[in-house]
Structures are given as C-alpha cells and as structure tokens.
Design brief:
CATH class: Alpha Beta
Order of helices and strands: HEHEHHEEH
CATH architecture: 3-Layer(aba) Sandwich
CATH topology: Glutaredoxin
Distance between the termini: 54 Å
Low-confidence stretches: 12-19
Mean pLDDT: 83
Number of helices: 5
Shape: globular
Number of domains: 1
Radius of gyration: 18 Å
Length: about 160
C-alpha cells in the first residue's frame, strides 16, 4: 500500500512539474543571417537540455525578416510584432536596449521579466548551463526587484 501511495505522489509531482510555468525565460535576439547566432543558439539549446521540461522557456525575438532591402513598412511591421511578443513576456524594455542587435540572449525571471544574466557567443554550453542554474536560483528564491544581473554585457538597472 505504501508503494502505491508513493507512486501516486510521485506521479502527481511529475504531472505538476510538467504543467508548471517556467521560472526563467531566455529572451534570444536572433536572426538566421547572424553568424554569432549560428554559434550561440545551439549552445543555448544544449544548455537547456540539462533542465527539466518547462523550467526554462526560450523566446526568440527573431529579426530575420528585417533586412536592409526591406521596406520601411515591412520593417515597422516586424518590429511591432516583436515588440508585442516582448511585451507579452514582460521584456519590452529589452527591445529598447537590444532591439535590432543579434547574437545576445538575456535570461529573465519569468514572474516579472527582471534580467538575471546574459549569454553571448564566446560562452560555452557548459558556461551557459552554469549561468542558467544561477538564474533559476535567483528567479525561484530571490526577492523580486532585487535580483542582481550577472554576466557579460548585462544591462544594469
């Protein structure tokens, strides 16, 4: 009977973890034509594999459709779509800081969009995973509004 009860509890905990909201979101400024992104994006994916599903969410702010030969109207439309996506994830301020820049990603607390750490091309997947562990700890245990960003070129509030 105890084994059945333990199995039921474990099953419920697993189900709750699978449906839980992420504690960290990676806001990834990317484009298919960006050489730094071609290196950084797979490293982020590899680093994320070390975490349970649903704990970390990656949000791509992909500027691929913004090209020098695109019209002003096309660029404005894409920028508006990306800004709306950023607002949906509480990180519109990041668009103000990095909009149009590619090859950088910022880990933010999912509850309020507060920046926790940044990732750039020179970082290995292992280094990114280490920073993600720190970001997760800050997001889950830190005091909202008092979590200090860390990492290369992180925005200072």
């Amino acid at each position: 009977m105890r084994n059945l009860f333990a199995a039921l509890i474990l099953s419920l905990v697993s189900a709750l973890a699978a449906t839980a909201e992420p504690s960290v979101k990676i806001i990834n400024f990317t484009a298919d034509w960006c050489p730094n992104c071609q290196i950084l994006n797979p490293r982020i994916e590899e680093a994320m594999q070390g975490f349970e599903d649903g704990v970390i969410e990656r949000v791509d702010l992909d500027v691929t459709r913004i090209r020098r030969n695109s019209s002003v109207a096309e660029r404005a439309e894409v920028q508006t779509e990306l800004l709306l996506l950023a607002e949906e994830h509480q990180v519109a301020y990041l668009w103000d800081w990095y909009g149009g820049v590619t090859g950088i990603a910022v880990a933010v607390a999912a509850d309020n969009g507060e920046p926790l750490t940044c990732f750039m091309r020179p970082m290995t997947a292992k280094a990114i995973a280490g920073q993600l562990k720190l970001a997760r700890t800050l997001a889950e245990r830190g005091t909202p509004g008092a979590r200090k960003p860390d990492g290369p070129n992180c925005p200072v509030l």
